[in-house]
Each structure stands twice: as C-alpha cells, then as structure tokens.
Amino acid sequence: MPLKPASAAPHPTAWRLFLIFSRIGLTSFGGGLSGWLLREFVQDRHWISEEEFLNGLSLAQALPGVNVKNMAIWIGYRLAGARGAVAGFSGIIVPPAIFIVLLGILFASLARYPLSNIALAGAAAAAIGLSASMAIVAARRVPRRLIPLLIMVSTFVMVGLLHWPLVWVVLAEAAVSIAVEYRRLKSE
C-alpha cells in the first residue's frame, strides 16, 4: 500500500515519476544513482524521509537484481502504487537503455581519440563522489550503538579488505543484525 509523501508537496503522478526517473537515468553516468535518488526524492522534493529512503535502499540492496532498478520500483510504489512502480522501473531502464545503445555506437567510432578516455575517467570520478556521498549519509544514520557500528565495520573489513564473497557476508551480517534487533526490541 503506498504511503503519503513525507511533505505537503503535490502528489506525484506515475507520468511525473517516469519523467523524473528518466531524467535521473539519462543524466547519471558511471553509477552513483542512489545519490541522485536521495537528492531528488528526499532533499529536493521531500516526498519521502531520509529514514524511509535508507530503509528502501537496504531493501533494494538485499533483493536480487540491480539496486537502482529495485529502488526505482520501491520509490515508485511508495509514492504512486503499482502504476508508480511500473513508471519508476520503465523510467530508470528504458530511456537510458536506448541512450546507451546510441552512445555505444558513438563511442565505438570515437574510441581511437584520447579525449574519449578522458571523458570516461571524468564520469567515473563523479560516480565515485556520488557513491561516497551516499555512504557518508548512510553511515551518519547508523544508530550509535556498539553492535550496529561493529556490523558496519566488520562488513567493510570482510568485503573491502579481505575480499570475502559479498553474498555470504551480507547473509551472515543480515542474520546477526536481525537477531540483535529482534532481541533489543523484545527487551523494550
């Protein structure tokens, strides 16, 4: 069941969501889309709260498939029901896919020029900055309790430094997180 947006801003229609997701998909190069989604729906439009967004991001990352596609479906459904979910999915996938095919054709013809490599390096740097920004926002929201901080640090160490398989780390950390939170809520 879709929830009301977090502010008094006009209720988004499925068409408007399609256009927003299309713009985001067409203007974000090299990743970092979660940062764009945060800015668009939480910071600029105030349609969902930061906490809701981070909960949705956690869910999107836990589900199979591309995280941004999952987020687009989740945000779309949250704001406009089933039509919003279809609009979010279609907007984030279809126009960028068409553009990527056209861009691939163009880059194939320009690959021999050094400027094309410089442009790709710049896009990659921007994507890293957006991803780092999103990580900082998420880290700020981690409850300042010992167990969540330990889980966050251990996940970074296991995946980032030890290069353990992401799937197994996430499954193990999720089980620990759920058990700890269940126990904490039960004791309240």
Automatic annotation (TrEMBL):
One Pfam family of this chain: Chromate_transp
Any one GO molecular-function label of the UniProt entry: chromate transmembrane transporter activity
Domain of life according to the entry: Bacteria
Alphabetically ordered keywords of this record: Cell membrane, Membrane, Transmembrane, Transmembrane helix
Location within or outside the cell: Cell membrane
Keyword Transmembrane set for record: yes
InterPro entries: CHR_Transporter, Chromate_transpt
GO CC, one annotated term: plasma membrane
Membrane topology summary: Multi-pass membrane protein
Keyword Membrane: yes
Broad class of the protein's primary localization: membrane
TM segment ranges: 20-38, 86-111, 117-139, 146-166
Recorded family membership: Belongs to the chromate ion transporter (CHR) (TC 2.A.51) family.
Protein name as it appears in the record: Chromate transporter
Source organism per UniProt: Candidimonas nitroreducens
